[in-house]
Amino acid sequence: MRKEEVVQKFGRVLVPMLTAFRENGDLDLKKSQAIADYIVGEGLCDSLIVGGTTGEFFSLDFEERLSLFKSIKEAVGGRVPLIAGTGAIATREVVNLTKAAEELGYDMAMIVAPYYCKPTQKEIENHYRIIAGEVKIPIMLYNIPLFSGTNIEPETVRALYKIDNIVAIKEEAEIHPLQCTRYILECEDTMAVYSGDDTMILQIIAQGGVGGVSGTAQVVGKVLKEMINLFLAGEVAKAVSLHQKIYPFLRSLVQTGRKNPIPLLKFAFSLTSGIDVGVPRLPLLPPNEEEKREVIECLKRIPY
After folding, report:
1. Mean pLDDT computed over 135-159
2. Which residues contact 80 (CB under 8 A, 6 or more apart)?
């Protein structure tokens, strides 16, 4: 499966859904199913990602992740392609999670580069090679140096794209804004590159990427889809105008020194969907009233 086939099957707007928790911090599967049903029912995604960064996979244990995969498959399986976020520090854990997702019938696995342990490029390559050799499910590499602490270099991607079931990469593009072009050139324009940074979707597509893995699409997905379609149709000025309307909202999610947008994205989603998804798991804290007001003001400017 190469670039055109990936786009045909998974589309251009892939949404990493939020995960709901109860007041005591326990996983709320019923409400998480409601989130998935809303995103799919409102047409906000082409494909749905379960247990990605936006879904706070990093705060879930192994069994919680499996239960989330199962419950979302039950809720929306068959309505849109499902992608399982199966990244972890240890290669053996990723293998086990990815095998489980494959057995459940997920259509793809999105796997973040090993984080915290600061692997070399050779270790990153070996990590993905082992996983890809253990499963048949298509794999999307996930590069997010802001959180993982390491970059998947273009030369490493070149080595990995030759593996049949490694078919795409999510690139957190604001840190390395032109790395997308290097990925595309190294892979001879056969790997699908998605922006993992919502502020950079147009810029990624302009370089030859195919779309975005967008957490904010569960709030403004229809506008994002329109922006992408306008750009691809040659209506660049109109696409840029929509980008400029969305951009302040995107920045409002990381106000007051926040690096992680999840707390404010949960607030925005609850506001626009009518589904109270609660707060993130600690150590992330919910927004204060001033932060909420800024998000509300930014949302007012978007024709979503």
Report:
1. 96
2. 40, 45, 46, 47, 48
**Catalytic positions:** 142, 170
CA-to-CA distance for 283 and 274, rounded, in angstroms? 25
**In this predicted structure, what is the pLDDT of residue 230?**
98
C-alpha–C-alpha distance, residues 174 and 253, integer Å: 15
Are 303 and 222 within 8 A, CB to CB?
no
pLDDT higher than 80, residue 304: no
Q: What is the CATH class of 3-221?
A: alpha beta
- Helix or strand or coil: residue 139? strand
β-strands 211-213, 166-171: how paired? unpaired
* Cis peptide bond N-terminal to 263, omega within 30: no
Q: What is the pLDDT of residues 107-134, one digit of tens each?
A: 999 999 999 999 999 999 999 999 999 9
Domain boundaries, the chain: 3-221
HSE, CB side, 13 Å, CA atoms: give it for residue 55. Answer: 32
269 near 218, Cβ under 8 Å? yes
Per-residue confidence band for 215, with pLDDT thresholds at 50, 70 and 90:
very high
